[in-house]
Amino acid sequence: MKATTPAAGTTGRPTEQDWAAAVDAVRTGLRPGARVLLVCHVNPDGDALGSMLGFAQGLRRLGVTSLQCTFPGPLTVPEPLHMPAMDLLIPEAEADPAPDLLVTFDAASESRLGALVDRLETATVSLVLDHHASNTGFGKVSLVDPCAAATSVVAAELLRRLDVPLDRDMAECLYIALVTDTGSFKFDLTTPEVHELAARLVATGIDVGAISRRIFDSRPFGAVRLFGEVMGRAQLEPASAGGRGLVYAVATLDDLRKHDQPPYVLEALIDSVRCVAEADVALLLKQVAPTEWAVSMRSKGGADVSRIAVAMGGGGHRLAAGFTGHGTAEEIIDAVRERLAAQG
Ligand code: 5GP
Ligand code: MN
Q: Per-residue pLDDT tens for 161-184?
């Protein structure tokens, strides 16, 4: 998709009625004594956490006092993604069983909410903020903009419509979300609006150099050696993906053990795979259990990897998607290769 912003209503972008419904939904959370629960997707990335914690600070500004933020799974945040307002994070087990307002962030499907999915039923009002074209349309009120580069673009626009002034901590969270999902303003959805939002965020005084170094340009020496080893085993198949080329790499639990690294260091590895000039499609398998793999896919435009991810039980965007694969690495690579061939 090129960096254009077609009119609302013609492309599945939110209409003015959708924005008004979202503003109304948030207002239910502003009633005295209202309990608000914010949830982002499992294994949160910068956009999931940053849009949630940025929005949370906006709600605080509006006077919300009973406010919880959480995500499914263990309550650990990789060090590169540490950001302001993390004190609002609570373990999922402590999440309000029936909040007045539930807001979800960056989750394309209910499955991304893990055991917290039941809050969609128990919450009085549920609001879904997202930017995945593959979003399944769950939630009572849904604000999904497939043309937005990040969920934080949607969250920031909603805060603007609620007349919330940006402050530095709020901006840092929203900026981390924006800079991670746009690959530092390099990906295709980096529109004028993205840069306008970035300008508003940077104007609050955030330290963009320090943020970028922490997130993108800093990793343990062991991770650098691990990357070298995994990339040394990468395979290029010029004839795959309809002749446009497939490159893939496999990072195993043994690799992590050998270099004494936590799994999150592998999140940056897809960038080394996707830069291979001879391949349209890049595939990275990250082992999470003996027969379970977190799979990342990237396309340069020839293939729609979101369709493959959805077919494999995951989701994402046309040029960046993922899923959880079961079986051996070879079986998963075979399945992806076949689906790529079927796309032509
Ligand atoms: P990444 O490869 O960086 O983990 O994810 C790329 C994109 O695919 C992100 O937009 C992410 O939300 C989506 N994605 C990655 N893994 C999964 C998954 O297991 N399920 C779903 N629904 N989406 C995923
Ligand atoms: Mn996102």
A: 999 999 999 999 999 999 999 999
Structural domain boundaries enclosing 54: 16-216
Q: Is 323 in the pocket of ligand 1 (CB under 6 A)?
A: yes
pTM value > 0.70: yes
**Any atom of ligand 1 within 6 Å of the Cβ of 133:** no
Query: pLDDT of 126-150, one tens digit each?
Result: 999 999 999 999 999 999 999 999 9
294 in the same domain as 166:
no
**89 contacts 77 by C-beta, under 8 angstroms:** yes
> Which atom of ligand 1 is the closest one to the Cα of 106?
12
Q: Is the CB of 46 under 6 A from ligand 1?
A: no
Q: Are residues 207 and 226 in the same domain?
A: no
132: in domain: yes
- The tally of domains found in the chain comes to 2
Domain for residue 7, yes or no? no
93-111 as b/e: b if 16+ CB within 10 A: eebbeebbbbbbbbbbbbb
